[in-house]
Amino acid sequence: METLLIVDDDVSLLETLKMHFEEIEQDGQPRYQVATATSAAAGLRAAQEAMPSVVILDMMLPDRTGLEIIEEMKGLCGDARIILVTAYHDMETTIRAMKAGAFDYIHKPFPDPAALDLVVERALEYRQLSRRADEVHRENAAARLGDIVGTSPLMQQLVKEIGKVTGSHATVLITGESGTGKELIARVIHNYSYDEPRPFIGINCSAIVDTLLESELFGHEKGAFTGATAGKPGKFELAEDGTVFLDEIGDMSLMLQAKLLRVLQEREFERVGGVKRIKLRARVIAATHRALVEEVEAGRFREDLYQRLKVITLQIPPLRERREDIPPLVKHLLERINEKVHKRVTRVPGEVMERLTRLPWRGNVRELENVLTRAVVLAPGDVLRGDDLPALESTTPAPDAGRNAPPAAGAMFAAPAEDDASLIPTLEEAERQLIARAMTVTKGHKGRTCQILGISRPTLERKLQKYGLAQGQSPQVHTFPVKDAS
């Protein structure tokens, strides 16, 4: 559901438009949630509260003009598309409106509601395309060589090996514990291997059931299986002459391992249900946190596929083996986190940095980023507080520690022992606790909560109702450990 804000001092028109948009459905569900305002001041307040996707803004309002507030409106509701409407037909105002950043400029009275519907839908489409472009930009930006932070001997050696790898298109196997940054390394290799942009297509082999993974990799033809109402290209086809990144390949079934081996040997594949041979033009980079030598010995991974994959092998060291890299890594991550949650936590006291360097970091860089994110969100000023970090003992339980003991205070993002399944919350419980904590930090400000959690206002409203966190309720917030999902 998209949130639509309509700002117009014509109350009759306002109610008509509200009813019109609220009656529109998509897949049997309401398409829009509509907020309204009759003045510029009320419109700005509504924009901050509702975080709309599209704003229909009247040019002439009682207190200010639409042109006067368009910049403020854009600042309050981010990437919302703003459609200005007016009863006046003059070229100068149209030019000024578009120059000010309006998505479109339409005139009253509206000749056909469907015409307005079309403009709103087009605004949503462009907003989605813009978000996807921003996402691609962030993905590419996150794969610069400068984002491989560390000057330790282990990292210096890894960077040298990456430099050698980018000079060829040989298959690469990246190994390392969960959270060490295997996908980042793969993206760096990809970006530095080509002079012009090419597709980077990734897939997590452990996140898709075996019956669907084959279709995801190779694609399928119409009618290949129940539900295949149209043909669909797979990852190998979409990658064209770029890179296919197979993450957690150690979790792939033996049946698919055999098919992948044939593809790597013959450099050709077929869609599921198809007969046409498609040339594999992409480079293959695989990654795993498993020790594939041991998997081969146990009969869970094909030795011939392992030999085919490890043409070039890169081993990423765990964070605990390069503790001298933690201070620069903390600085780097804080810059990224501050930008994401709109805060300026830049100061790290010496005792806090010392504590960060001593933590075991079983979840590696991913765990460090999670811990820092939580600490930044909770920090009242520009100083990273030690109170918001996990206790040293919270991530290093004694061998005889009770399985049902509660997690230590502040250990919200600390990874439990691998066999300590009793401390892993359900996804719903984890989500409920995060939302409750975010609402506490923002003192119930829903717009700010949406920004921190990266969700829309309607989504937040639904989840508040679902988890009983609506206004007036004060659920007890507990900390909990989160197991590394990768």
Characterise this structure.
It is a single chain. This protein is of the alpha/beta class. The protein folds into 4 domains: 2-138, Response regulator (Rossmann fold, 3-Layer(aba) Sandwich), CATH 3.40.50.2300; 146-315, P-loop containing nucleotide triphosphate hydrolases (Rossmann fold, 3-Layer(aba) Sandwich), CATH 3.40.50; 319-388, Orthogonal Bundle (Helicase, Ruva Protein, domain 3); 427-467, Homeodomain-like (Arc Repressor Mutant, subunit A). Helix content is 43%, strand content 13%. The protein is built from 18 helices and 16 strands.
Question: Secondary structure elements and their pairing?
Answer:
Blueprint: E1 2-7, H1 11-22, E2 25-26, E3 29-30, E4 32-37, H2 40-50, E5 54-58, H3 66-76, E6 81-86, H4 91-99, E7 104-107, H5 113-141, H6 153-165, E8 172-175, H7 182-193, E9 200-204, H8 210-218, E10 219-220, E11 232-233, H9 235-238, E12 243-247, H10 254-266, E13 268-269, E14 278-279, E15 283-288, H11 292-297, H12 303-309, E16 312-315, H13 326-341, H14 350-358, H15 364-378, H16 427-441, H17 446-453, H18 457-466
Parallel strand pairs: 1-4, 1-5, 5-6, 6-7, 8-15, 8-16, 9-12, 12-15
Antiparallel strand pairs: 2-3, 10-11, 13-14
Helix pairs in contact: 2-3, 13-15, 16-17
Structural class: alpha/beta
Q: What is the count of structural domains? A: 4
- How much β-strand is present in the residues? 5-15%
**Number of β-strand runs:** 16
Ends: how far apart? 30 Å
**How would a textbook summarize the main sheet?**
5 strands, parallel
Compute the average pLDDT.
82
State Rg. 26 Å
- Uncertain runs: 393-422, 472-486
Task: Briefly note the CATH topology name of the largest domain.
Answer: Rossmann fold
Pfam families: AAA_lid_14, HTH_8, Response_reg, Sigma54_activat
InterPro entries: AAA+_ATPase (IPR003593), AAA_lid_NorR (IPR058031), CheY-like_superfamily (IPR011006), Homeodomain-like_sf (IPR009057), HTH_Fis (IPR002197), P-loop_NTPase (IPR027417), Sig_transdc_resp-reg_receiver (IPR001789), Sigma_54_int (IPR002078)
Organism: Pseudomyxococcus hansupus
Region (Disordered): 387-409
